[in-house]
Amino acid sequence: MYGYQDAMVTTILLVAVMAIVVWLVATALFVSAAKKKGHYTQGAAVPWLVGIFLSPLTLALYVCALPDRGAPAATPTTSAPAQLEDELPAL
């Protein structure tokens, strides 16, 4: 009599555990992406808190907005005047 209900409860618990695991794995991946960008080298408490308490999607947007500290700074190859740098190139 309780076989169907037990199977349903087991399935719901299994899905909940899998969702938590996926949530934590996604958070870990985005924290490592933030570290690869050169941020949070000493500790990563802030992205972990954002990822756990808000969502991995919020953390993904946060990590995407971080500037890349590991990339070299862009240096202009020509010494064009400052007023010409803002113009669009000719087609």
Which key phrases capture this entry?
about 90 residues; mainly alpha; about 0% strand; elongated
Task: Give a brief rundown of this model.
64% of the residues lie in helices and 0% in strands. With 91 residues, it is an all-alpha fold. The longest helix has 34 residues, at 3-36.
Binned, the helix content reads 55-70%
The arrangement of helices and strands along the chain is: HHHH
Task: Quote the distance from N terminus to C terminus.
Answer: 76 Å
Question: Using DSSP, what is the number of strands?
Answer: 0
Spatial extent as radius of gyration? 23 Å
* Strand-residue proportion: under 5%
- Helix-and-strand structural type: mainly alpha
- Rounded mean pLDDT is 81
Q: Report low-confidence residues grouped into runs of 5 or more.
A: none
Which outline best applies? elongated
Q: Tell me the number of helical segments per DSSP (H or I, 4 or more residues long).
A: 4
Largest sheet: none
What does this structure look like?
The mean pLDDT is 81. Helix 1 (3-36) runs antiparallel to helix 2 and helix 1 packs parallel to helix 3 (56-65). It is elongated, with a radius of gyration of 23 Å. It has 91 residues and is mostly helical. The protein starts with a helix and ends in a 6-residue tail after the last helix. The protein is built from four helices and no strands.
Layout of helices and strands:
Layout: H1 3-36, H2 45-54, H3 56-65, H4 82-85
Helix pairs in contact: 1-2, 1-3, 2-3
